[in-house]
């Protein structure tokens, strides 16, 4: 039987309150659990000591018998000094998606074509307009 340490949601709509529980991995999120080892109130300020309360002894016991914490709970344990969590690295985090890359390529191509057209227009010899010649003839007569 796999055991996990995870959050169980309580509270009203748009007013969440979580219990940190040890539960069977197949049990529903807010269903039956083996033991409650702490609480988490995300509505409190980050520096408030009541935001996260963890019973360190029970958390250490469950970790020692093989319970696996979820990522969010592992972060809380790391901050409380119960279990050190190795930092994760996602090199693709800031990279745009495929569609955004395609749009950027299209935009760059349009800009390049516009620059080429402007360069071609400025490089072409300036011809005198026939309308200018007609006005000169009418002023001479």
From TrEMBL:
The keyword rRNA-binding does not apply. Transmembrane segments: none annotated. Keywords: Ribonucleoprotein, Ribosomal protein. This is Small ribosomal subunit protein bS16. It comes from Novosphingobium mangrovi (ex Hu et al. 2023). NCBIfam families: S16 (TIGR00002). The lineage of its organism: Bacteria, Pseudomonadati, Pseudomonadota, Alphaproteobacteria, Sphingomonadales. One of its GO terms (cellular component) is ribosome. The gene is rpsP. The keyword Ribonucleoprotein applies. Residues 95-115 have a biased composition (Basic and acidic residues).
């Amino acid at each position: 039987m796999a055991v996990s340490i995870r959050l169980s949601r309580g509270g009203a709509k748009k007013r969440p309150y979580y219990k940190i529980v040890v539960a069977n991995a197949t049990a529903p999120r807010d269903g039956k659990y083996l033991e409650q080892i702490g609480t988490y109130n995300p509505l409190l300020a980050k520096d408030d000591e009541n935001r996260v309360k963890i019973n360190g002894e029970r958390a250490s016991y469950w970790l020692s018998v093989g319970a696996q914490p979820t990522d969010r709970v592992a972060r809380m344990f790391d901050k409380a000094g119960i279990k050190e969590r190795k930092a994760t690295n996602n090199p693709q985090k800031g990279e745009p998606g495929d569609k955004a890359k395609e749009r950027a390529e299209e935009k760059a191509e349009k800009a390049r074509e516009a620059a080429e057209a402007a360069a071609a227009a400025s490089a072409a010899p300036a011809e005198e307009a026939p309308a200018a010649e007609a006005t000169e003839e009418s002023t001479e007569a």
